[in-house]
Amino acid sequence: MRIRFTKMQGAGNDFVVLDETRAALGLSAAQYRFLADRHFGVGADQILTVRPSPAEGIDFQYVIHNADGGEVEQCGNGARCFMRFVSEHKLTAKDTVRVQTLAGVIEPRMAPTAA
What is the pLDDT of residues 2-60, one digit of tens each? Predict the structure, then answer.
């Protein structure tokens, strides 16, 4: 199976970001572990998945898997990468988005760029 991904880092943590806004990949915990593996996979502290809005008033769903394949509630450095990913990949034009996570709704925002 071929998977398109983006590799990002934020404050020393590295992430593999997957875009599931058009179609779900349906990965298992073992597949997340393989992606995160630094010898045989891409290598990452966490796998971040961008999914479409699960409800009215929410822009995206954000799912986070640790390198062991388990899902976690939230990651601050990951949220920064998530926001940059959806902005740079033109998934949103908003500066602030409402995102559903396992921990609840968060509202990451893009920092203004320096001129």
Answer: 889 999 988 888 999 999 999 999 999 999 999 999 999 999 999 999 999 999 999 99
Amino acid at 36: A
The structure's pTM equals: 0.90
| Nearest of 13, 18, 5, 10 to residue 108 by alpha carbon | 10
**4's tokens:** 């398109």
Domains in the chain: ranges and CATH: 6-106 (3.10.310.10)
Query: Residue type for 110, please?
Result: M
DSSP, residue by residue, 29-71: HHHHHHHH-TTTS---SEEEEEEE-SSTT--EEEEEEETTS-E
Backbone phi, psi, residue 78, to 5°: -65, -40
